[in-house]
Design a protein that fits this description.
The complex is a heterodimer of chains A (about 475) and B (about 200). Chain A has seven helices and 29 strands. Chain A is of the alpha+beta class and about 475 residues long. In chain B, the strands form two sheets. In chain B, strands 3-4-5-6 form a four-stranded mixed beta sheet. In chain B, strands 1-2 form a two-stranded antiparallel sheet. The relative contact order of chain B is 0.12. The chains are: A alpha+beta (about 475), B alpha+beta (about 200).
Chain lengths: ~475, ~200
């Protein structure tokens, strides 16, 4: 029996999945006084320009051109001058504002101006017309096989066990088919059941034989058919973007290479676009620098990373955000995940309270360990990509300078830069003219993120031409 | 017969002497109580002895984000290892002065430096050096570069430098600068020279 690959979010950790045309992401749910809450700033950040401030006992937020005002402990808020009722009192913790999850269905349309479909019990939020409804077709010639069609490419985690095959959609806006429970008049493939909970959707296929899943039509079609008789194991799991090819006898096939461990927080869905790996540094117990008494580096890098993902996606890049929650990753895990993606660039994001502006770094290579034949030393794999890394460093620094950031370029012994095979840079965001408050400002972060995305975009052709 | 006025004066003086005795004893006890706490956070470093020599220290400047060579005349003992230790302690004293351009905690110290042939230097920092170091890519890298470059410039033959904390390997100085690998003196030198 094969072991299950680790998931980015533990099974008992509550999360809210958000699917929007510009971004797909998951946010942690916080429970207070019997209510489920989510950070409003974190929720809106990937969707547009957002900033917040707390003063005179009120918490104000500006999203694009929409202003809203909340009062801690109260259930009444004002959005664009109009009152809005919350299902539970508004909370402020460490300067961050939290709204009850049950309020989102009515509150969010006021900010977004577009339709919001909230599957509250499943904690899945669909913004705009993004939902994807699968279509089943059972064919019996020459062998029974089930064809699932989706309107957009999908990327489920697939696992099998005796009598069933499960497809878990963590990052895809898949919703229930016309019949959530579909029976088939077939002895081999008998039933397909859709369910959704805790931010993920699941399709379970009942079967009397081991099945193999194959992808086609640019990951829009999944065909489930009988596994080869030689299949030796009867239970396994692979993320659809899983890096290593399936082992011999493994009845699950996957369309593209991807990381083996740990599972990334989000995965690019369009394999034709150039991929950028964005790595918000620190996370979990590793808080990074204490930027203020209440503001940790790990929180700034996460918000900054989400904004950078958005800016890159707007410019046509696919983005793999290595951390999309408050989870810890080791340097080796970050490098290992990035190295199997064949991305054109890896960006590590940091924040610091000293200095001002931003600094862009490439790897300061240590004394290289011994390479052995075709195996290159782990501590110096970046060496061959260093010239390209410096090209990107200069491009990003140039764009930051254009946006009035005081910027420095340097080399630093900062892991995992030296462990990454692709061009790799780190960006350290320091306070701007507004001082330390800038670091928590979404508009300041967004300005830096736009500059970084512009910098990468400006050397896109040269990166593609890299061997 | 002792005059009454003289008797009273002597009595007053006696009372004063006894009171002052108690007071001084009390003050002395207080000084003993306070002194250990005041010195506990400071490094215990024997004063260097030996003839003074001219050395070049590479001193970090946070505002400029660079190292600047600074000449200094410091007493250096005879042994190669002790010379290296005194050299870096002289560097630390600059960082521990009020208003330093790259401040380090007052309790920061070099526990020891091991010079291992061929060309390897191992710097062993005390826990306070790392634990109380400011966190950030630039500030940590400046510290590392300053130690490596100062050592390399004044101790001939050093090609690679490793940094330990309390005698043990440590992943990072304060969350960023990687301490798990050997620093290549030539690479760091190019970095410093290229600033």
């Amino acid at each position: 029996m094969l072991t299950l690959l680790p998931a980015a979010t533990s099974a008992d950790e509550k999360q809210l999945s958000v699917y929007a045309p510009v971004a797909t992401y998951a946010l942690p749910i916080h429970e207070r006084s019997g209510h489920e809450y989510v950070g409003l700033l974190e929720l809106l950040e990937p969707l547009g320009r957002v900033s917040s401030e707390a003063s005179a006992g009120r918490w104000r937020i500006r999203f694009d051109a929409i202003d809203a005002e909340f009062v801690p402990g109260k259930t009444r808020a004002r959005v664009q001058g109009r009152e809005a009722d919350l299902t539970a009192p508004f909370l402020v913790e460490n300067g961050r504002g939290f709204v009850s999850v049950a309020s989102l269905g009515t509150l969010l349309p006021r900010f977004l101006g577009s339709a919001v479909n909230f599957h509250e019990s499943a904690r899945r939020l669909f913004i705009g017309d993004v939902a994807v409804r699968p279509n089943f077709r059972l064919e019996t010639d020459p062998q029974p096989h089930l064809v699932l069609n989706f309107a957009v490419p999908v990327n489920p985690t697939i696992s099998t066990e005796p009598g069933r095959l499960r497809m878990v959609f963590k990052h895809d806006p898949v919703v229930a088919p016309e019949n959530a429970n579909t029976g088939f008049d077939n002895r081999v493939i008998t039933q397909a059941t859709f369910s959704e909970s805790n931010g993920v959707a699941e399709l379970e296929i009942r079967t009397s034989i081991p099945l193999i899943a194959s992808f086609s039509n640019n990951a829009r079609t999944i065909t489930l058919s009988a596994a080869p008789a030689a299949a030796g194991s009867n239970s396994n799991s692979q993320p659809a973007q899983g890096g290593a090819p399936p082992a011999a006898g493994n009845p699950v096939t996957q369309p593209s290479p991807s990381p083996s461990s740990p599972a990334p927080a989000a995965a690019p869905q369009n394999v034709n676009r150039l991929l950028v790996v964005v790595d918000p540094a620190h996370g979990g117990e590793e808080r990074g620098a204490a930027l203020t008494d209440k503001l940790a580096e790990k929180d700034v890098t996460l918000g900054f990373g989400r904004l950078l993902r958005h800016e890159l996606e707007v410019r046509g890049f696919a983005v793999l955000l290595l951390r999309d929650g408050d989870n810890a990753l080791t340097s080796d895990q970050r490098a290992g995940t990035a190295n199997v993606t064949h991305a054109i660039v890896y960006i590590s994001l940091h924040a610091v309270s000293q200095g001002n502006g931003a600094a862009v770094y490439t790897a300061l290579m240590p004394v290289a360990a011994q390479s052995n034949g075709t195996f290159r030393a782990w501590n110096s794999v970046q060496a061959s990509a260093l010239p390209a890394s410096r090209t990107i460093e200069s491009a990003i620094a140039s764009e930051l300078a254009k946006k009035q950031f005081q910027v420095r370029e340097a080399a630093a012994s900062l892991r995992p830069l030296n462990n990454v095979t692709m061009p790799a840079v780190a960006v350290e965001l320091a306070p701007g003219p507004g001082g330390l408050l800038d670091l928590a400002s979404a508009s300041y972060q967004q300005k830096a993120a736009a500059a970084i995305a512009d910098g990468i975009n400006s050397v896109r052709d040269r990166l593609v031409a890299q061997p | 017969m002792i005059p009454r006025s003289l008797f009273i004066t002597m009595a007053i003086m006696l009372v004063l002497v006894i009171s002052l005795g108690f007071y001084f004893r009390r003050m002395q006890q207080r000084a003993y109580e306070v002194e250990p706490a005041a010195t506990a956070a400071l490094p215990v470093t024997p004063p260097a002895s030996g003839p003074t020599e001219n050395v070049t220290l590479y001193v970090a400047d946070d505002a400029a984000a660079e190292l600047r060579p600074q000449s200094a005349k410091i007493p250096l003992p005879g042994g190669r290892q002790q010379r290296a230790e005194e050299l870096l302690r002289a560097l630390l004293r600059i960082y521990q002065q009020p208003g330093a351009a790259h401040p380090l905690a007052a309790a920061s110290d070099i526990r020891s430096i091991y010079l291992v042939d061929p060309g390897v230097a191992v710097i062993d920092l005390n826990a306070a050096f790392a634990d109380q170091h400011r966190s950030g890519i630039m500030v940590e890298q400046l510290t590392v570069n300053s130690l490596v470059e100062t050592l390399a410039a004044n101790v001939p033959g050093v090609q690679r430098v490793s940094i330990l904390v309390e005698g043990k390997p440590r992943e990072t100085l304060a969350g960023h600068a990687d301490l798990t690998e050997f620093f290549d003196v030539q690479t760091v030198g190019q970095l410093v020279g290229g600033q």
